Amino acid sequence: MSVRAKSIAIAFLTMAFLWANLEAYPHPDGMSNVLLAYRFITTGTANVGGFEEVPFGWRNWDRTDGFPDNNRFGPATAVALAPAVAVAVIAGVRPQDVFVWGYIDKLVATLLITVLAVATYAAARRLAGDGPALVATFASVAGTSLATVAGQRTWQHAVGAAAFAIAWLWFIRGRDDERWLARAGLPLAIAIVARYPLAIVWLVGLGYVAFVRRRQALPYLLWSAGPLIFLTIYNAVAFGSPVENSYGPRLWQWASLIGLPGSLISPSRGLLVYSPFLIAGLLAIGQRALRREPLWLFALAVFIGMWAVHGTYIGWTGSWSYGNRYLLETVPILAAGFALAWAGAGERMRWVLAAALLFAVIVQVAGLLAYYHFFDGFNWDVARMDDADLSGAAMWDPLDTQWWWTIRSAVTHADFRAALVLPVTLAFAYFSFRSGLARPTAVAVRSQVA
Question: Distances from the Cα of 264 to the Cαs of 251, 304, 311, in angstroms?
Answer without folding.
Answer: 22, 12, 9
